[in-house]
# Entry
Amino acid sequence: MLKPTVETHYPYRADVVGSLLRPQTILQARIDREQGKISPQELRTIEAKEITGAVELQRSVGLKVCTDGDFHRRHWFIDFVERIDGVAFAGGLPARFHNEDGDIEFSPPRIEVRSKLKRSRALSSDDFIALKPAADAAGIAAKQCIPSPTLLHFRGGRAAVDSKAYPDMEGFFSDLARVYREEIAALYAAGCRHVQIDETNLPFMCDPNLQGHLKNIGETRDALIAKYVALINDCVRDAPADMAITMHMCRGNHESSWVADGGYDPIAEAAFGGLNLRGFFLEYDSPRAGTFAPLRFLTKGKIAVLGLVTSKRAALESKEDIKRRIDEAAKVIPLAQLALSPQCGFASTIKGNRLTMDDQRKKLELVVGTAKDVWGTV
# Structure
């Protein structure tokens, strides 16, 4: 293997994307809450107990960073977005997810902006405050994952933003960025130094088969990419220098299924070069992701975390195959700018992907073990 010439501190050489498979206790508690058998606080207490176990899992496999596994969430973005004042959900947005056995239909809620956007309560900082003591006790860093602000625009475009509240879209994007800056500030005040923005819409724009949606919302790809880069940069512009903000680019993750195909080529120059972020968690677990060539646009100091270990299938990858692919990527950018993680979370929705708890552990152990072989550290 090639050896790094420069050391960097974050992202770690072995990292984790976010969600973890929910234990049966949480799945049952969610059912009990829906049936009115337990209170919201009782549900949260059960989740908190299991989060301690999730942190211990991540520590025990050798990771230096952990998340709460999204255990306090029923879906990777809904719980966060619905807490923003002015936002409402209206019906479903039909989507076709693909897997090795065929297609499944899933309709995540359509987001509408019905009044001025404000942050009058915590969006995710309460979850981080609950996570940090467990992470501190385990002696590892705590990371908070938050959904991308582009979600509030991409699904409905101008038509989903109330014209009385926002006669022009500049005001909408400005308020949206302010909400995110306020949440990032609250996370920092709570002791958070690692934030991951989960972004689906930029990679969705890489799929030729999904271009019709852009026309439906009155946008063109290049213009919308530029608009989203500007929005995200506005969201993070006040983040302190010692807060590492990264982005996970996801092509869809629902019960071991995905939505989008296509390499990063259409967005690489604008995103990898233009986004003021510490690094990018990139899905590279299948040929659908394209080549490593777009990594050439990654500017100095940024890290590409290669998602070479899939979270969608139980079969365990070969360590040697992973090392070979890291070597391929290192021909495009220096090994010092690379790291390794699972391709996505294991359970972006409550039910989770088609793996067992043991499968999940083995995947995380593989990430850590491979990183140690390649970089000599995690």
